[in-house]
Specification:
The chain contains six helices and eight strands. 25% of the residues lie in helices and 10% in strands.
């Protein structure tokens, strides 16, 4: 997700956000069954990057393959994009104006080479680079790390929602919406992380949240 959640909030959780949000206890989720931590999520060192660049190995060229969800949306290759979270799950993200992601997002000088290498790993021609986002499988606001193993080349495409300053593809909308749910206490951080890693296209349903409005723009 590239944008800020502060400009607009989902109608369901605006009141909770304005009242000052806290993160729900990390023991399950409201409105659904408890979700254990996925065994595929590994805690990264720090934020998954150092002064030398992003942590983690880049898969060999053409060794990874984009998958397709039941609704036709793109999914990463779990053998290549295995998910990494940060050591902490700080509730401060909910009320930190403008800024948590800006404070931890790596500079483009670090991410652009990795984006090109991951495009090659997924067998995507370099000439198509502008059609893809170097996505965090677990978004930064949901505790994702910038480790290479939490990144994948996500197509910037829409099937459900529309583009805005903060939403560049359908997954961005889901990330923003589920982050609002974390802040409102209607879903836990662990539950959101697990559902996004398993299949981001079904995250809202699995979490027991109301459907995202068709005109939602983050």
């Amino acid at each position: 997700m590239n944008g800020s959640w502060l400009r607009r909030c989902a109608p369901l959780v605006c009141v909770a956000l304005l009242a000052g949000c806290t993160v729900a206890p990390d023991s399950g989720l409201s409105g659904g069954s408890p979700v254990p931590r996925s065994s595929g999520i590994v805690v990264a060192s720090g934020h998954g990057r150092t002064s030398a660049g992003l942590a983690g190995p880049v898969p060999a060229p053409r060794s990874c393959h984009l998958r397709t969800a039941a609704d036709g949306q793109p999914l990463p290759d779990p053998a290549c994009t295995r998910a990494r979270s940060t050591p902490r799950s700080p509730p401060r993200r909910c009320g930190r104006k403008g800024g948590y992601t800006a404070s931890v997002r790596p500079p483009e000088a670090s991410t652009e080479p990795v984006k090109r290498e991951l495009l090659a790993a997924y067998g995507i021609p370099a000439g198509q680079i502008s059609h893809y986002e170097l996505d965090h499988l677990i978004d930064l606001t949901a505790g994702g790390a910038s480790d290479v193993r939490n990144r994948w080349p996500e197509p910037n495409s829409f099937q459900q929602f529309r583009a805005s300053s903060f939403v560049h593809n359908d997954k961005d909308a889901v990330e923003s919406y589920t982050f609002h749910a974390i802040c409102a206490g209607t879903a836990t951080l662990t539950a959101v992380q697990n559902t996004m890693v398993t299949d981001w296209t079904t995250a809202v349903t699995v979490l027991g949240l109301p459907p995202i409005p068709a005109d939602y723009t983050g």
